[in-house]
Amino acid sequence: MPDSTATAQELCLPEELILMLLNEQNGYFHQVPGWNLNCAVVGAVLAQLSLLSRIDTDLDSLILADPAETGDPVLDPVLKEIAGESVQRDAVYWIERLAGKAESIIDHTLERLVELKILEHHDGDFWTLAAATWREELSGGSQEGTVGQFVKTRVLKALFTEEIPDPRDIIVICLVNTCDVFRFMFEIDDETQERIDLICRMDLIGRSIAAAVEHNISSPSLRPSALTKKIPVVPLHKLLLNPRLRGGNIAAIFAHIAEEHGPVFQIRPPFQEPTTFLAGPQVNRWIHRNGRMYLRSRDYFTDIEKVYGASGVIASLDGADHFQLRKAMQPGTSRGRLEDRLHDLYGHARAFMADWNVGSSLPATSMCRLMINAQISPLVISIDSQDFVEDLIRFKERALTTHVAKVLPKFMLNTPSMKRASRAIDVGVQRILGLHTPAQRVGCPRDLADDLLSLHASDPQFLPESNLAFALSTPMLASMYLGDAFGCALYAMASQPTLYERIRAEADALFENGDPDAKDFADESIDVTRRFILECLRMYPIVPASIRNVMNSCVVEGHELPVGARIAIASTAPHYMSDVFPDPFTFDIDRYLPPRNEHRSPGYAPYGLGTHKCLGFRWVDLQLAVNLLMVAHYFTLKVSPANYKLRISPFPSLSPSKKLKFRIAEQVRELPA
After folding, report:
1. Are both 269 and 185 inside the same structural domain?
2. Which residues does 434 contact at the CB level (< 8 Å), separation at least 6?
3. Closest Cα partner for 163 from 175, 173, 148?
4. 331: domain range?
């Protein structure tokens, strides 16, 4: 496997263009609109084929010179398409024709740069230069062979010295200039701009490709059609009379409406602004890739921020600030951090289950939330919050119901009971601060609270004290979401004895010789449990949709979304679309076996999409697995009442109905002392 010292000869022009356009501050490309980026990337492919003598291009024509494959999976499909055309075309034609395939070119290019260890991929589709590259450049040793020299350093030399650039550098400069992003990278004065213009005239290939790209960018007739379709309005009664509404299955409701009205539709609730819904696998793909350019989360979350006295929390941030805060929080929410604390996790889980008695019935929702919180609070913020977490959750649920779902008037957040519940926020923050002094933390494993307080101390403007109440209480609130997912999974396990026994068999094998280590949770060791969780997250997604506002007008599935429009992204609606998940109302863990692999579709999105995808989803996967396995190892649970069919409480997020209980039918083995 090539290492971070990839040479220029190992990189092709599309890869060098991507490296030039990557904005490390926000983990994505500089502000290049999608169509412009597509045209530039295709131009880079054509230029590379020209350098390899497969095509010959000038200002007026593009000629096939050699149809022989290059062996490059990015270049060869384009070369094959050019070779299959019977009529000679120019570069303008080919850039327009191939622009629709640019996304796959970008995907392949990013994947290769990650394989070369030049880029590092972060969850949410962010990329940064791999740390090894920076270490090498900062070490004081030779920079020969580093990415910095072979891409941005070469371009810098070309722009700010009198050296005559290499033809491939001229092409890169031409393409970046066409995208109009040099001004975001460097200080560009009139003299430097003249130098750029001069360089762009030096090479015929660069001039011809850049001219073709610029023609496609500037010509409105060549962009995606402006003849958009009218967004259908769904009558409110179709929502209210939907047979899935009674069971609270929001994802299934959105799927049903989308299958009838299309992936973009509008609902106009009385006394509220209209909301446009996006639902479908292709919409999911668009959101994941392009949502960051057109949608923002700040607008709908402003009222929630005010409730906590905060401004600019992670849920309301976008762009570079959001990426910076995610990077700061990522270590404390990572699977690796939980793997380091697995034996503590076992202890907390067993301590909670020690109070379970055969024959007793446990209320599913509160029990599962408390069991998860009994683990999350000590592991993530190093406190015990069992005495007040239910008040914290009640207040957050009411805030979401009044300010986001808007199914209750705002004054319902200011009732005496809610004012009492809100005091839990201060209780939690003070408890965390009291246990996170330097003296108290000596010898303690680092946690998320340490990370957040360190960020506040080092950059109090970025993470001010006014935001700490929200930031520090978020881990405890996570027990609501993860606890509800755990409750749904326990229901699915308790109501399907055959699967219960298969999960127990995996648990018994894991715990047979003592508590397992992180390496023991390999996919093959918990195959049934892993696929069981995937199916639970499909059928019972806790956050079925997210809300955004349009900040830049865009076209989605042929429908124009105007600036300011309120958008509901029904990301889990495809979970109940039969063309994505055949027989979607059947619980089937074999969906996730090859060759089916139905979760590989963009329609599978239990943790959200794009830049706001759940930051700790890998932690969640492991914690869910550990808890299910431990319950199965020690106890047999039964659904109570016995014939109960799961119903969902849909607001403010999906949770099992409070009528659901679990009866402790059997204790299979004793809990260790």
Report:
1. no
2. 440
3. 173
4. 251-667
Residues 203, 293 within the same domain: no
Least Cα distance to 633 among 575, 672, 582 occurs for 672
Q: Which residue from 569, 526, 52, 649 is spatially nearest to 281, judged by alpha carbons?
A: 569
What pLDDT score does 317 carry? 93
**Cα–Cα distance measured from residue 537 to residue 557, given in angstroms and rounded to the nearest whole number:** 27
- d(CA 233, CA 549) in angstroms, rounded, equals 18
Q: Return the exposure string of 13-26: e unless at least 16 CB atoms fall within 10 Å of the residue's CB, then b.
A: bbbbbbbbbbbeeb
pTM: 0.88
Give the end-to-end CA distance of the chain in Å, rounded to a whole number: 49
Give the model's pLDDT for residue 142: 47
Is 673 inside a domain boundary? no
pLDDT of the residue at 218: 66
Residues 141 and 180 in one domain: yes
Q: Is residue 648 part of a domain?
A: yes
Sites in the chain below the pLDDT cut of 70: 1-9, 131-150, 218-227
Tokens of 84: 């299959």
Preceding omega of 562 cis (within 30 degrees of 0): no
**Residue 39 to residue 667: CA distance in whole angstroms:** 64
Same domain, 293 and 169: no
